[in-house]
Amino acid sequence: MRLPREPHPVDRPGPVLLMIVCAGLGTVAASGWNGDGGRIQPIAAVLAIVLFACFLILFAVFWVGWLMRGHELWREERRRSGGADSD
Fold first, then answer.
1. Residue 33: phi, psi to the nearest 5?
2. pLDDT tens, 39-87?
3. d(CA 38, CA 20)
4. pTM over cut 0.70
5. DSSP the chain
């Protein structure tokens, strides 16, 4: 008896939604970058940079997970078709 497989983390909506939220909040912070009379507001600048960094990290993690999922599917297909090695 096989247990039901849990969905791959890439298939879950959490990482994608978090990326969208970070990108959206970063955009909002960047739009508030120039405040009164074109003066740069340091808090908005730091917030925009931090949120953009979070977006990039989440994107990298999501991309690596997507690649690993593709590799996992490839290995399962190869195993089912009777491939040479069974790593």
1. -60, -50
2. 667 787 888 889 999 999 999 988 898 888 888 888 888 888 876 555 5
3. 28
4. no
5. -PPPPPPPGGGSHHHHHHHHHHHHHHHHHHHTSB-GGGPBPHHHHHHHHHHHHHHHHHHHHHHHHHHHHHHHHHHHHHHHTT-S---
